[in-house]
Amino acid sequence: MKIQIISVGKLSGELSKIADKYKKMIGWQIRTTELQHSKKSSPEEIKEDESKQIGAKITNGSYIVVLDLVGKQISSEGFSTVFAKQMMLGKSIDFIIGGAFGLDEIILKTANIKLSLSEMTFPHQLVKVILLEQIYRAQTILDNHPYHK
């Protein structure tokens, strides 16, 4: 299984080390694509600019998961079924994490599923680490590994 996490902004410091730890533990092929924050002036221009950058990085034919505050909340077990279904179909998965102003409607419309990690707002760097942990957890669920318990 090939997984790509496309995000606006770069990980740094301790969070980067934690993210690297999870990437090494994940048995699936995983790539993180970190994009530059837009230098535009208005929130709408920023969202549009960042969405163009994101759109250029989406893998053709992949299953697209957008992390969005108003997305659906699912359990870790439910999250693991997303991977199981896409593995059966032979598809890769692209996760998209937008910038501070969210994602432009163009990217939201490309999503196969919109997920919310919580009703709370988290820093984008922390979201990336939480997502990596949940990807690892999904893998352990599918492998019947005791990590999930």
What would the keywords be for this entry?
single chain, alpha/beta, five-stranded parallel β-sheet, globular
Topology:
Layout: E1 2-8, H1 13-25, E2 29-35, H2 43-57, E3 63-72, H3 76-89, E4 93-97, H4 105-110, E5 113-115, H5 124-142
Parallel strand pairs: 1-2, 1-4, 3-4, 3-5
Fold and architecture overview:
The two termini are 24 Å apart. With 149 residues, the protein is an alpha/beta fold. The protein contains five helices and five strands, in the order βαβαβαβαβα. It has one domain: SPOUT methyltransferase, trefoil knot domain (Alpha/beta knot, 3-Layer(aba) Sandwich), CATH 3.40.1280. Strands 2-1-4-3-5 form a five-stranded parallel beta sheet. It has helices at 13-25, 43-57, 76-89, 105-110, 124-142, and strands at 2-8, 29-35, 63-72, 93-97, 113-115.
Q: Into how many domains do the coordinates divide?
A: 1
Rounded mean pLDDT is: 94
> What is the β-strand count?
5
What's the order of the H and E elements?
EHEHEHEHEH
Strand order of the largest sheet: 2-1-4-3-5
Determine the CATH topology.
Alpha/beta knot
- Which percent bin holds the helix content? 40-55%
Superfamily (CATH H level) name: SPOUT methyltransferase, trefoil knot domain
SS summary, helix count: 5
